Structure to design on (613 residues):
């Protein structure tokens, strides 16, 4: 079915506060990035958006594709109309029938070229097609994109050697071609990083896809060759955020010739167009302004654009049926686990670090026994176990910061739902954190033998694993809120330090400042350490009490572990009254709250949360 997408008087304004202007050096106040741009594209056509650097190509493309970084930004206001067949373009339609490929490749670095395409195909189609059909589709795309020689090569990361920049670009394009029933495709610099021959082949493929699948394709492109230029059906030339020309690409040269701008015979038409509208290196800016004014037809009264009706979301009933949800969660769990297993930066290095520190702590407290003089060392052994291995959770921040961009793109493109993504990573992290907890606890628990009952170790492990899962949840939450992982690491470590100090052992609850006591009640360290103390000491026979009373060279705690717990208790905190499984439930509640907070925050980065004006 033939469809058309039109945009009328698109204007994008951004407001820079005084503080932000001071930090970034941008102009304070409101400024227009895009100014009254119009255009239209039909199914089976390719529209190119070209212009000098800083002209607003990417901003315009992201606005037309309803990208969250533009639509959900409270400092950005968008005016005009974007319609599909005279109906306002909604996020629902965008997620089901459109896809956006960003300028920066958002792929899974530890998966191969084929695996990235396979999971995209299955997640987009949710088992609607037979595996043989999906495999044939993937192989056709791989052959068309010239990726046959590297189909089994990982995409690559700083820790994994993989594809070149141009090959990654082609894989990104292939991922979006996997979507079924696609109507419009938005591509930001699809030929970036490609040589001239590869770029020409990719544009041929884009044109072929547009015609064969009856898809309307809007692409921004920086400096196309003459061969690529004539592949476009429609051309939108912009400068300073304004339209200089819109129409058929092969008629653009004649339009400017009639305006007194003639192109040299041997010149690339794209180079000619970019040269005459580039005000950065043009001594006569008035000529550029004159070109823009000749085309400009701006509306005098603008209304703020609306995308969604109230309570409208991306998912539809057929997208949300139980079988499809379970299928997508299963696929996401498989993909995430495979990615985590292969990427050493995610969990392999952490397990190795945990193993090293586990042995180190165990050997450090090797001579500790359950005697009066060694009881303080037993306390500190437990404290360092929770502290050291919590801080090592910081490696999750940079890893998730990279993963977040890919997830946001895939969710925005309608590949799967946000709740499914959050559920999948929450499930995958459970066995991984359990493995880390076993590795981390074996050394400091069994080398000095804090308690020789194996059942006590299992309880110790359960509490400790739940604590690390809470810390992992905190790290994922901070990484989702703070885009700069260096700042995220600072906040993460600062938060852990504050919660560790307010665990109820270093300072009594009665002596905590009233305005800071909330840290104690929200500190997972408080509940974890109290439960671990109870597990290790309760019911255990402590030796050397008589000798301690005779010498009085060190504190005497008592003949039993319960006496020890009484000795460190106070009126506000009695360790013997601690119910370890209640505290385990509190840790579970912390993890759930943080995961829901993660979901809620990421939701604002994915869905259009603006209400209709």
């Amino acid at each position: 079915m033939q469809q058309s997408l039109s945009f009328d008087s698109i204007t994008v304004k951004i407001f820079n506060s005084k503080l932000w202007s001071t930090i970034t050096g941008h102009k304070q106040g409101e400024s227009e990035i895009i100014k009254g741009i119009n255009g239209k594209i039909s199914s089976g056509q390719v529209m190119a958006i070209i212009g000098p650097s800083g002209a607003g190509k990417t901003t315009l493309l992201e606005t037309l594709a309803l990208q969250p970084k533009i639509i959900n930004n409270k400092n950005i206001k968008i005016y005009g109309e974007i319609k599909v067949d005279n109906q306002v373009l909604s996020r629902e339609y965008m997620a089901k029938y459109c896809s956006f490929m960003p300028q920066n490749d958002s792929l899974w670095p530890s998966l191969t070229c084929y695996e990235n395409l396979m999971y995209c195909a299955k997640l987009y189609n949710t088992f609607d097609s037979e595996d043989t059909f999906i495999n044939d589709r993937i192989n056709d795309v791989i052959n068309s994109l010239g990726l046959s020689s590297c189909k089994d090569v990982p995409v690559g990361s700083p820790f994994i050697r993989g594809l070149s920049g141009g090959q990654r670009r082609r894989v990104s394009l292939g991922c979006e071609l996997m979507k079924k029933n696609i109507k419009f495709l938005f591509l930001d610099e699809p030929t970036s990083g490609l040589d001239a021959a590869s770029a020409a082949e990719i544009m041929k493929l884009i044109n072929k896809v547009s015609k064969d699948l009856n898809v309307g394709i809007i692409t921004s492109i920086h400096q196309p060759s003459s061969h690529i230029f004539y592949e476009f059906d429609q051309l939108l030339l912009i400068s300073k955020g304004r339209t200089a020309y819109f129409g058929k690409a092969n008629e653009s040269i004649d339009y400017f010739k009639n305006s007194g701008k003639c192109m040299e015979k041997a010149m690339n038409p794209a180079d000619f167009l970019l040269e005459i509208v580039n005000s950065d290196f043009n001594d006569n800016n008035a000529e550029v302004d004159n070109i823009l004014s000749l085309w400009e037809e701006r509306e005098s009264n603008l209304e703020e654009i609306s995308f969604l009706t109230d309570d409208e979301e991306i998912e539809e009933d057929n997208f949300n049926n139980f079988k499809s949800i379970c299928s997508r969660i299963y696929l996401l769990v498989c993909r995430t686990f495979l990615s985590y297993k292969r990427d050493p930066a995610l969990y392999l290095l952490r397990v190795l670090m945990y193993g090293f520190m586990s042995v180190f702590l165990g050997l450090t407290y090797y001579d500790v026994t359950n005697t009066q003089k060694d009881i303080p060392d037993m306390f500190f052994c437990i404290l360092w176990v929770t502290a050291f291995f919590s801080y090592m959770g910081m490696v999750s921040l940079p890893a998730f910061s990279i993963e977040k961009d890919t997830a946001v793109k895939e969710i925005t493109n309608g590949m799967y739902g946000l709740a499914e993504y959050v559920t999948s990573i929450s499930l995958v992290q459970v066995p991984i954190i359990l493995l880390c907890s076993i590795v981390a606890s074996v050394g400091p628990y069994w080398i000095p033998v804090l308690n020789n009952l194996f059942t006590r170790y299992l309880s110790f492990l359960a509490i400790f694993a739940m604590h690390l899962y809470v810390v992992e949840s905190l790290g994922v939450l901070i990484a989702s809120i703070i885009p700069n992982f260096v700042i995220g690491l600072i906040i993460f470590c600062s938060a852990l330090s504050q919660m560790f100090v307010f665990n109820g052992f270093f300072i009594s609850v009665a002596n905590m400042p009233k305005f800071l006591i909330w840290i104690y009640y929200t500190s997972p360290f408080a509940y974890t350490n109290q439960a671990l103390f109870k597990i290790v000491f309760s019911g255990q026979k402590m030796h050397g009490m008589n000798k301690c009373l005779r010498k009085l060279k060190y504190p005497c705690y008592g003949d039993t572990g319960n006496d020890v717990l009484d000795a460190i208790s106070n009126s506000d905190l009695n360790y013997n009254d601690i119910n370890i499984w209640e505290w385990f439930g509190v840790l579970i509640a912390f993890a759930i709250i943080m995961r829901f907070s993660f979901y809620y925050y990421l939701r604002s980065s994915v869905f259009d949360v603006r209400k209709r004006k």
About this structure: Confidence is low (pLDDT under 50) at residues 298-304, 306-318, 608-613. The longest helix spans residues 418-446.
